[in-house]
TrEMBL record:
An example Gene Ontology molecular-function term: nucleic acid binding
Designated name of the protein: Integrase-like protein
Gene3D superfamilies from the UniProt entry: Ribonuclease H-like superfamily/Ribonuclease H
Membrane-spanning parts: none
InterPro entries listed in its UniProt record: Integrase_cat-core, RNaseH-like_sf, RNaseH_sf
GO terms, biological process: DNA integration
Superkingdom as given in the UniProt entry: Bacteria
Integrase catalytic domain: residues covered: 98-185
Amino acid sequence: SRELGINPKTVAKWRKRETVEDRKTGPKAPRSTVLSETEEAMIVAFRRHTLLPLDDCLYALQPTVPHLTRSALHRCLQRHGISRLPEVGGDKPKRQRFKRYPIGFFHMDIAEVQTAEGKLCLFVAIDRTSKFAVTQLVEKADRRTTWVFLEHLLEAVPYRIHTILTDNGIQFAEQPRNRNAAYARTPVASCRADASSGIVMSPSCAMISAKRPRCGSSFPLPLGRP
């Protein structure tokens, strides 16, 4: 330490190391000073589920996380190793493209978000043409929260929605045991009943099959705004 003019503690530290490579400075487990653990988990789940670019993720998540900035989002994605979208090249099969639809065709799905407090559910709806995305984080994905998210989606989208495609989850299906319960009607039935309040049916909308149409628990959702 005298020869090099450094602290003896530094010499003792380097003697215990197996390599001479410099290590990263800062905390061993870096975390955001702006985002909570739940917000970070939601951001990671949204990115992995949608594979949208950085700016599209920012615009979709800001209504749920108002204090989210572009730099904070980028640092969050970097910490979790998903700041760069996967590239398809070489012998890897190309990703199949969706059929082209007119703007207003939304795909609605639910992603699980694992946090320190437990499991949460993230509703995600993306327009297949414009890539406009709407999200909402809830504690449980049931018929009630599905209704709430559907209303949130209709208010958030600035243009007409003509179709919403879902899977066969029980949140979207009409089941006999739920007919006399709260939120007994499926969202499509509700939209037909509430057409006078600004939600109108698209006359040219066709019935859209779900992923497993034989199960009979999926529904098309031809909606729109005048």
